Amino acid sequence: MNVYLDNAATTAVAPEVLEAMIPVLRESYGNPSSSHAIGRKTRVIIEQSRRLIAQHLNCHSSCIYFTSGGTEADNLALRGAVRDLGCERIITSEAEHSAVIKTARSLERSHGIQLDLVKHHEDGTVDLDHLEELLVSGPKTIVSIMHANNEVAVVQDIHAIGSLCRDANALFHSDTVQTMCHYTFDLESLPVDFIACSAHKFHGPKGVGFLYIRKGIHLGGQIEGGSQERAVRGGTESTHNIVGLAAAFDLAYAELEEHERHIRHLKAKMAKGLKLLFPDVRFNGQSDEESRLYTVLNVSFPPHPKSGMALFLLDLEGVSCSGGSACSSGATLGSHVLRSLKFHDPERASLRFSFGRFSTDRDIDIALKAIERVFA
Ligand code: PLP
Fold first, then answer.
1. How far is the centre of ligand 1, averaged over its atoms, from the C-alpha of 29 (Å)?
2. Please, which of 72, 185, 275, 326 could form a disulfide with 9 given CB 3.0 to 4.6 Å?
3. Is residue 262 domain-shared with residue 187, that is, in the same domain?
4. pTM score
């Protein structure tokens, strides 16, 4: 019996999403840029999907730019800000996803931009006083701070960060990949210029997402080619994936509160079970707290001779979890996030358990038993 507790890495496609996608693959094969009726029909489907997503986020549909996922959306925002909007400095954090921190470092090398890293408090939240200090002077800036950390579940106050950016006339990008469709956003009132989305984090298909770009901000062509996505991102649209993304949005928003209640219950059960098994267990980034990302629990197990093998042994037991982001599956080497937030302890195994709409009480019971056997 396999138990999947790695929903922050990716989620299973929901049957409702699949149902929405299959007819598109079967029938809506027209190129949305073609002027004939079959192409125009596909164009309508794409624009309906864009409108639906925009309605959920309370923004204009022209602010949604479809991409291949979260990585591309993050790249588009940062590279576009430097290349097209005159930003000469990026302020970000070492605890960002690689899609942000590596892009920022790459722009530092290729474009000579100034890269400033904001400090964190002990609990992993951004030091807003330090951010404010950094923003007092300096060249035109884009700040990139994620909404919730995919590894340790720390949620940042993006409203406060965005307000500081507005006051300092800086642009603000937030990687919202882990919170989109798990939390609500009102983009009329949230002071952000860019946010990123990836469908496969909320039971949509892989290989599709979007970048929200605030109205009035104009990026040049990131991927040169046709004039798709208002010439920002050339290439024939992935129609079935876009429909799947919109269907996953609809599904999530129809049951947002229920979904949150269900997952919070499972996460609390897991945390409680772990505390009973290991009185000295810790939760990195206090990821067991109410205010943290409710889908993720990052567990620091007490020192144990099998710590280095924990991920592998749990996999043998049929429990899929991770040691950090999916990119760092060799978890026990230590993730850049745990190191940068000073949660890394070489004596202790840190494992991330993350929950989704298909996770059950039984999954938690099975996982706890397997963990008990591994650390026996
Ligand atoms: N940003 C965060 C916070 C993520 O968790 C991920 C996925 O792991 C990404 C960006 C990248 O998204 P994608 O897999 O769609 O490229």
1. 28
2. 326
3. no
4. 0.95
